Structure formats: structure tokens, C-alpha cells
Amino acid sequence: MTSGGDLLVIRPKRFVLPMWLVVLGVVLRWLARFCWWCLRHPVAVGLAVAAVVLYAEHGVLGVVVPLVLSSAVSALWRWRDEASWWRWCAGPLLGRFRHVFVYRRAWHEAMTLCGLAETYDHRPVLPELLRVRSDQALDVLTVRMVRGQTPADFQKVTANLAYAFGRRHARVYSERPDAPPTRTGYWALLLGWVDRVRFRDRPTLVYLVLVRTDALRPVVPPFDASPVPDFTALPLARRENLGTWSLCLLATHVLIGGATRSGKGSVLWSLVRALAGGITSGLVRLWVIDPKGGMEFAMGRPLFARFAGTSFEAMADLLDEAVTVMRERQTRLAGTVRVHTPTEADPLVVVVIDEMAALTAYLQDVDLRRRIAGSLGLLLSQGAGVGVLVVAALQDPRKEVLPFRDLFPTRIALGLTEAAQVDMVLGDGARNRGALADQMPRWAKGVGYVILDGTPEPLRVRFSYVTDDDIRDLARRYPAPADAADILAQVGRKSTPEPVRTPLPRKPSGPLLPDALRNLLDPNGGSEPR
Ligand SMILES: Nc1ncnc2c1ncn2[C@@H]1O[C@H](COP(=O)(O)OP(=O)(O)OP(=O)(O)O)[C@@H](O)[C@H]1O
């Protein structure tokens, strides 16, 4: 039996460090951290050292004079070339400042409250803020995700992140939002290699873009109409980073969804303006259908090769004729090219339809509606490759109203009335990825979301506003050629006939029926050879 008195208490001998050693350890640790910080921030350290040396040598003037001089140079630089000033001077400085004083301070709280902090081994694990780059309008945060997270986790809480950092708009990209620059000249090869490293695929990172200054608030003036439009990049809108968003109008149809008075007209007119040079030279023919009796487009009538604004019969005829043009081109180009290249002899035909639902859903004449639906279906499914394109605007993107929604490869969503409509226009999941087209403020006429080629993340843009005076001016300066309407004359042109297939020689084969039965069935009694 064991009693309390029998217990043996064993205590390890405590090793007590002397006080001076503890202090030395702490000092060494901070010194090592400071050296590491200096190594990582050579510019800041260099400037601080230079300031100290100048102060020691020349007193206060030694610091003030360089400061004034560098401010003057900076102002001059900004005046001469603001873009490069932001890129190389103001952007990095502002980004550094905001990294330390804005984002790092609120990071822990924001990540935890937005549900992006995880727990591992009883310790909180946070996404790591690696870098902040700023420009005139945006802050781009490079973030390393916690193991097990995906960009979709960030995209789900995009709005929460924006408001957590005191902003209204944010966007989450799984790849770098900026494309690698095009390098030319002597150093192109070397810089190309550097870019390959800078722009390499980094699946552990996510890019959070916060809109600091909403560059889309001011109305965007119309872009210059180029005499020779580049169909792969037609400038239509301003981006959040103050860049220009350009539409590629080759081999694609465009759908514009937007509630009433959201600015669909500005998208269509921006496009007409971008194409204006080609209209006059005969490179593009605009065939316009304006079911609102010509309220939107009649003012620009001289620009259009064909126009239908009052009679639905005429609109159906116009679409039928577009199908005829398409068929003729298919016959002529089959076996020659896979995608049509617009030329003056063989122009790009763009069928512009304002308020498409008037043709597909609200038209009461059922036969006419069916006829229009048939032509539209053909154009949308086969016209893109042969240069007969459809650009259509509509208010209500439901399937019942527009059954061919999925046949439009390029989609633009302006302000919409319901959250569900955003995905109907831009495709599934677009709203979750930040396309909040149903939450447009009242001032945001002509503001919309587009999906960039090759990236799933939506882009917020504002289309240029073409005023009535601009339209009149366009119509005066860029009228369509006098013979533009008779493109159908080309259909009469001799088209390549379908190649005739000569049958392969076949061995003479014997009768399938026995002779006795064949003679029985033959009305001539088998006398005539068959
Ligand atoms: N890009 C823009 N920038 C600034 N204001 C615009 C822009 N686009 C349109 N607006 C303003 O919004 C108003 C409505 O524009 P618009 O008529 O183009 O809208 P809509 O969607 O075509 O309307 P509806 O559905 O009636 O055809 C215009 O009168 C104009 O004042």
C-alpha cells in the first residue's frame, strides 16, 4: 500500500539565463529583422541614408532643396507623360504607402470577418498580402491563398471585400489582370524572357482589384472614328483603369441586355461610330431594324445600307435577305476559306436590331413571328463565319423572350432589374464573379459588364455617349455609298456550283433474284434484257 508520504516528487533542474544574455538575444533578433527589412527595401533605405548624409553635410537646405527639385521634376514628368509617371513613379509609391497604412492594418480583421481565415493546428491561418500596386484608379492586391482555398472562395465574397476596405467595387482575378506587354526593339528578346517569369502561371495567388477612384463616373466622350476600322479592336468604352475597351467584331454576334433607359442606345451608337470609316469606304454595310418606329436610329439613316423601322413585314424581308446573302457566301466560299475577310467587294454585313423582343416575342402576327424566328436562327447559327453578323439589344433576356440567347458568343450586360438576369445575359456564375449589373446606381447610364476573351472574370466598362449632334455629324460625314443597298445584286453573281461527285466505278454485279423469279415478275416476260 502506498501512502502520501511515500510519493517522490521529481523536478527538473531549472536553467535560468542571465539577464544580459536575454537582452542581447532580443537586440540581435531585432537587428537581424532590421537588416532583412533593409535588404528588402533598398530604395527606401537609400533615400533615408541620402537624406541623413545631406542633412549632416548641408543642414536643412541639403534636404529641402532636393525635395523641391524632385517635386518639380515629378510635376513636369506628370505634365508631359502622365501614364508613365503613374507607372514608374506615383503608382509604386502610392502602392507601397497603401500596403503599409491601409491594407496591412485592416488585413487580419477583414480576412477574418469575410470568412477567409482558416484554422489549422488550433492557430488562425490567413491569406498573405504580398504586394499592392496602384494606378490612377485601382489598387491591385496580390494575395497568397491559404492551402485548400480556391479563387472561387474569394470571388464569392467580392462585395464583402470591397466594403471591408471601404470601397464600392472589387473584382477577383485568378490570373494577373494585366496582359504581358508587347516588346519590340533591341531588348525585346531579353525583356520577353523577363516577362515570361513575371507572367508565369501562379496557381497559389489570387488578385484582388479594388476600385479606388471610380473612373466610370464621368460621361465618356465618343472615340475618334478611324477611317479604316480594325474589326478586331473597335474602341467602344472606357475601362475602370482608364484604358479603352475594344470589341472584336469578327466572326461573332453581340447581345446587349439592359433594362429600359440603361443606355443600350449608347452601346449601339458607339459601335456605329467605330465602324463609320468602313461604312463610307464600303467595307461594312449596316442593316438596321428599329422596331420602335425609328425612334432610335432614323436620325442616322444615311449611314445605313438598309433600314426598317415601321413595317414588321419589311423587317422580316430584311432578315430573309440577310439569309440569302449568307447562303450565297456559303456557296461561294465553301472550300476556300473558313472565316470571311471583309473587303469592299465582299463587305461585312452587320444586322443591328434594337429591342429584339419586339420581333421574337411581342409580335402578334404568329406567321410573321415564325418567319422572323427562322431567319434569325439561321443567321445566328451560320452567319458569323461568312461575315453576316447580328448585333441585338433587348430588355428582357428570358428564354421565352429570346430563345436564341445562347447563340450570341459576345454578351454585354448593362443595368438589369433582377439578379437572375445577370447570369442569363453573361452566362452562369457571372454575377458571383462580380458582375453586379442589377445593382447599378442611378447615374450609371451606359455602364455595363463584359466578359473578356479567354478570362472568366467580368470587366466593368462605360460606353461612350454619342449625342444627337454627334449622330447628325456622323451621318453627314460618313454616309453609306449610294449603291450600298443593293448588296443582293451580288447574289445574282455566278456562284461556284456544288462539285458534282462522279460515282465510283462498280463491278457489274449479278442479279439479286434467281432468273426464274425475275422472268415471272417481268411484265415483258423476260424477253427484254434488263
Ligand atoms: N453612355 C452614356 N453616358 C451617359 N449617359 C447616357 C449614356 N447612355 C445613355 N445615357 C443617358 O441615358 C438615357 C437613356 O439612354 P438610352 O435611350 O440609350 O437607353 P436605352 O436603354 O436605349 O433605353 P430604351 O430601353 O428606352 O431604348 C439617355 O437619354 C442619356 O441621357
UniProtKB/TrEMBL annotation:
The chain crosses the membrane at residues 15-32, 39-56. Residues 489-530 are annotated as: Disordered. InterPro entries: FtsK/SpoIIIE/SftA, FtsK_dom, P-loop_NTPase. The keyword Membrane applies. ATP binds at G258, A259, T260, R261, S262, G263, K264, G265. Keywords: ATP-binding, Cell cycle, Cell division, Membrane, Nucleotide-binding, Transmembrane, Transmembrane helix. One of its GO terms (molecular function) is ATP binding. It comes from the Bacteria. Residues 233-423 form the FtsK domain. GO terms for biological process: cell division. Gene3D superfamilies: P-loop containing nucleotide triphosphate hydrolases. This is Cell division protein FtsK.
